[in-house]
């Protein structure tokens, strides 16, 4: 097997593109180095091993629509084109971008696929990039064509298709998750690009420190690795040099980073830095990363979801207003949209970054779930069971239950957990923010409920 890695090139803007011809000699390096056969593919070993569903599709030309789920630069377009080629010349490849195509364009592609099938018996492989950006109406427009196998759909998404793709389309497709390329795969891809006639044709030499830098920069993204290599090689050759070393890569990094910021390819690194800055109580750094995501065109719904998760994970009850604030920002994103919603996202970012921090909530639920998974469940105490049906009292259900509101303090002694977990403290307030109050109140409640009151 040769050493090209899996990577993908987004379709250009506008309407559908037929992509049957080889890239032009002046095309980007990543386009020229796209694998042309399965033997040229490196990466995705679990999906491409003998007997795996994707391998069977590529080897045998079986007809099944596929949803490819994974980060950028992992092979979505490449796999789609190889599926088209697996039909022994009886498949035609068409690409649509969900960023620019509407229902009208989609129906035109489907109608042309129908004419092509009736005229020559050729199946159309329809590749749709960023399918999660299609509306429900657009996704529904695909159903009939997919069900009748008028088109063999290969849809790509960076979001979990369980949440971003309508259920009928999901049930008609094979969902495959792609992983980022490993370091060895990226190194092989870079070396092949340097040596190949389709690539740089040995016009430059890749120094070990330059290769290491490109591997780090790629973060498992084959397209990013090749784009950075091309920029570094162009810079070196322009300066009269023939070696791509660390200095050459560093000179090209700024240009590449900005380019990928705009395309959203630093999605994982930037969102990680964003959340860690909030957790670290640095509102200025958090706003910087928020700005980078907004300028890059990151989906504001994704940012809002991460803020809601963070409000419970790292703040919790230290500031009970954190989660409502994050939820409100998500509603603004949904109801108002960008660019105005940036204000709500910035407001809640500052709110969360300056709030007192506590991970007591996530620690508590994780500890409780660990006990449940370990088998510490037990039966629900009889007095807590449902008593609202005939014969319940004969079984002892709800017998002896004490109603807390009958007590002047609204809290009384009573066993609530199963016998297996009686006396276990899952929630421990941090003593920061509002949890200072809870740190005093929770032990008092436990003493009353457990009957250990002084």
Q: Would you kindly provide a written description of the structure presented here, covering whatever features stand out?
A:
The chain is an alpha/beta fold and 454 residues long. It has four domains: 17-177, P-loop containing nucleotide triphosphate hydrolases (Rossmann fold, 3-Layer(aba) Sandwich), CATH 3.40.50; 183-263, Orthogonal Bundle (Helicase, Ruva Protein, domain 3); 267-354, Zinc Finger, Delta Prime, domain 3 (Up-down Bundle); 370-449, post-AAA+ oligomerization domain-like. 49% of the residues lie in helices and 8% in strands. It is built from 19 helices and eight strands. It has helices at residues 29-32, 45-48, 53-60, 76-85, 103-120, 136-147, 161-164, 167-171, 183-195, 208-218, 222-238, 246-263, 267-279, 283-296, 300-315, 322-335, 341-354, 360-373, 435-449; strands at residues 17-18, 66-69, 91-97, 123-129, 151-157, 174-177, 205-206, 243-244. The strands form two sheets. The chain has a six-stranded mixed beta sheet, sandwiched between helices. Helix 5 (103-120) links the parallel strand 3 and strand 4 (123-129). Helix 11 (222-238) crosses helix 12 (246-263). It is globular. Residues 1-20 and 255-265 have low confidence and may be disordered.
């Amino acid at each position: 097997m040769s050493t090209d890695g899996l990577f993908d090139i987004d379709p250009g803007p506008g309407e559908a593109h037929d992509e049957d011809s080889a890239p032009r000699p002046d095309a980007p390096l990543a386009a020229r180095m796209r694998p042309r056969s399965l033997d040229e593919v490196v990466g995705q070993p679990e999906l491409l091993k003998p007997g795996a569903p994707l391998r069977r599709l590529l080897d045998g030309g079986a007809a099944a629509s596929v949803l490819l789920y994974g980060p950028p630069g992992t092979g979505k377009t490449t796999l789609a084109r190889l599926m088209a080629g697996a039909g022994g010349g009886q498949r035609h490849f068409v690409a649509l971008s969900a960023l620019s195509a509407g229902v009208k364009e989609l129906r035109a592609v489907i109608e042309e696929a129908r004419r092509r099938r009736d005229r020559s018996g050729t199946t159309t492989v329809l590749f749709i990039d960023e399918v999660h950006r299609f509306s429900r109406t657009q996704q529904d427009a695909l159903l009939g064509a997919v069900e009748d196998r008028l088109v063999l759909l290969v849809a790509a998404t960076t979001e979990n298709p369980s949440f971003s793709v309508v259920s009928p389309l999901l049930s008609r497709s094979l969902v495959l998750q792609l992983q980022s390329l490993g370091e060895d795969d990226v190194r092989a891809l870079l070396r092949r690009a340097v040596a190949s006639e389709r690539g740089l044709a040995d016009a430059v030499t890749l120094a070990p420190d330059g290769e290491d830098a490109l591997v780090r920069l790629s973060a498992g993204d084959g397209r990013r690795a090749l784009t950075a290599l091309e920029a570094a090689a162009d810079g070196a050759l322009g300066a009269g040099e023939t070696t791509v070393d660390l200095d050459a890569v560093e000179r090209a990094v700024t240009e590449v980073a900005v380019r990928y910021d705009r395309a959203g390819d630093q999605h994982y690194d930037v969102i990680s830095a964003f959340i860690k800055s909030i957790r670290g109580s640095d509102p200025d750094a958090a706003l910087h990363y928020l700005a980078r995501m907004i300028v890059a065109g990151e989906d504001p719904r994704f940012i809002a979801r991460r803020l809601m998760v963070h409000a419970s994970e790292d703040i919790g009850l230290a500031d009970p207003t954190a989660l409502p604030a994050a939820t409100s920002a998500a509603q603004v994103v949904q109801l108002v949209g960008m660019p105005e919603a940036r204000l709500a996202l910035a407001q809640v970012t500052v709110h969360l970054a300056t709030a007192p921090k506590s991970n007591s909530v996530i620690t508590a639920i994780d500890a409780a779930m660990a006990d449940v998974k370990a088998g510490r469940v037990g039966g629900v105490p009889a007095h807590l069971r449902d008593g609202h049906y005939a014969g319940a009292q004969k079984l002892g259900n709800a017998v002896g239950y004490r109603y807390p509101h009958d007590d002047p303090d609204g809290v009384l002694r009573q066993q609530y957990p199963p016998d297996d977990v009686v006396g276990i403290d899952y929630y421990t307030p941090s003593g920061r923010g509002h949890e200072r109050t809870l740190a005093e109140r929770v032990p008092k409640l436990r003493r009353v409920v457990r009957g250990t009151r002084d």
